[in-house]
Predict the structure.
Amino acid sequence: MQPTAKPTAKPTAAPKPSATPPPTDAPTTTWYTSPAATDAARRMSAAGTVGDPACTLSAVGRPDPALVPHESRIGIGHHGAYWCLVW
């Protein structure tokens, strides 16, 4: 039995993560607390139902961020488990 040959190439080191992410041209979403969204969340909580005309998206529990646009200003409001997002 012959000894196996040792590899001659050195493995490449994995790139180290940067403390600052590289700049991207991706759109930015601005989130802010909206009094109208907060009032709508209070109304939904009082009624025990999801859905208010003031809300673009309503939820019980945290809303799914994948369902919101990525180039917008989004107003948020919550009361208890009820959330209202407006854009």
